[in-house]
């Protein structure tokens, strides 16, 4: 079976090769990668990777539709020949790493564990900054090993998922968190399962983008999510903006809702050996290695440039003063959900 990963990147060349090496080890055989407005050479790296036969690179230079840069890329991906030919599809971000817990930790093992699935929800596990202040080119998966606990009650974003789905015509387009444009004629054949291998109700076939709260969603597979990095990297990310809404500047709120460091989780090291082998194979190409080093140098220089501006110095200072986030107890989360539900009911009553 062919597995296609779809990725959108901007100025993330320093992290690209580790991400690619890991997902090669997981079992993805096709990569459709979109780049836009890169100053660090990420787009040139992707050109070289395409020459090496490892990825397909598309420059997503606009104009962009109302959904923004990432939605425009996914709209283009829906028509691409790789998407049409793939058996399974998973859109990802460069800070998301598939972490399979069953069998030999590869995609075939996951399919063997859930053979009836046409869609599998991969729930985020949030990994915090782990006390890292300065950016280092050391591997993300070796550096950031502290995460949120397996059971979270708040915020709802901690239960968001990405969807690995069979490309059988049930959905016409890939989406950020779930496939889009359901074919009603094939709806009855859709079989959605969670990352514990349990069947999911019909509402997941249509619209859900987050798993149920207050339970361990990581039995067979999880999606390691590293949205922060070191404080230095977060300042650079704040300048770039959000992946989906690039005009939304990142601040302390985004950081606090994701900087959980309560539990050690090194389970993703199950694929350390094949990941390292794949990475070294890429770095053995002199052109690609030089481009990677240039992207690392750009990231360091960009941080220094941003720190000459007051808003980014202020953000960095606030990050230094902010302790790691603490999980919200069940009772406190229920208190907040009570008001969220009241607000939802009130909005439904409005004319």
Automatic annotation (TrEMBL):
What is its subcellular localisation? Membrane
Q: Name one GO cellular component term.
A: membrane
Q: Where does the source fall among the domains of life? A: Bacteria
Q: Which residues form the signal peptide?
A: none
Q: Which UniProt keywords apply?
A: Membrane, Transferase, Transmembrane, Transmembrane helix
Q: Classify the protein's membrane topology as the record does.
A: Single-pass membrane protein
Which GO molecular-function terms appear in the entry?
glycosyltransferase activity
User: Which species expresses this protein natively?
Assistant: Sulfitobacter donghicola DSW-25 = KCTC 12864 = JCM 14565
Name under which the protein is recorded: Glycosyl transferase family 2
* Pfam families in UniProt: Glyco_tranf_2_4 (PF13704)
Question: PANTHER family per the record?
Answer: GLYCOSYLTRANSFERASE FAMILY 92 PROTEIN
């Amino acid at each position: 079976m062919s597995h296609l990963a779809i990725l959108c990147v901007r100025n993330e060349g320093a992290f690209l090769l580790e991400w690619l090496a890991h997902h090669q080890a997981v079992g993805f055989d096709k990569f459709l990668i979109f780049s836009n407005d890169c100053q660090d050479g990420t787009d040139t790296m992707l050109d070289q990777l395409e020459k090496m036969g490892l990825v397909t690179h598309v420059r997503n230079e606009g104009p962009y539709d109302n959904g923004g840069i990432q939605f425009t890329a996914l709209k283009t991906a829906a028509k691409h020949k790789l998407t049409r030919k793939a058996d399974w599809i998973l859109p990802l971000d460069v800070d998301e790493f598939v972490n399979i817990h069953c069998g030999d930790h590869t995609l075939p093992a996951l399919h063997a564990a859930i053979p009836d699935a046409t869609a599998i929800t991969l729930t985020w596990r949030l990994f915090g900054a782990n006390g890292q202040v300065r950016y280092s080119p050391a591997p993300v998966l070796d550096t950031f090993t502290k995460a949120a606990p397996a059971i979270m009650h708040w915020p709802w974003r901690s239960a968001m998922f990405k969807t690995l789905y069979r490309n059988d015509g049930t959905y016409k387009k890939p989406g950020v968190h779930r496939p889009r444009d359901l074919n009603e004629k094939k709806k009855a054949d859709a079989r959605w399962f969670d990352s514990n291998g349990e069947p999911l109700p019909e509402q997941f076939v249509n619209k859900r983008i987050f798993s149920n709260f207050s339970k361990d969603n990581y039995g067979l597979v999880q999606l390691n999510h590293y949205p922060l990095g070191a404080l230095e990297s977060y300042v650079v990310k704040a300048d770039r903006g959000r992946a989906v809404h690039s005009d939304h500047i990142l601040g302390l709120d985004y950081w606090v809702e994701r900087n959980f460091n309560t539990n050690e989780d090194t389970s993703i090291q199950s694929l350390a050996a094949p990941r390292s082998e794949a990475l070294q194979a890429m770095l053995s190409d002199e052109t690609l290695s030089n481009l990677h080093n240039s992207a690392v140098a750009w990231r360091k220089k960009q941080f220094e440039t941003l720190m000459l501006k007051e808003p980014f110095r202020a953000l960095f200072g606030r990050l230094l003063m902010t302790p790691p986030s603490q999980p919200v107890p069940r009772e406190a989360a229920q208190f907040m959900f009570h008001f969220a539900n009241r607000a939802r009911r009130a909005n439904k009553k409005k004319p």
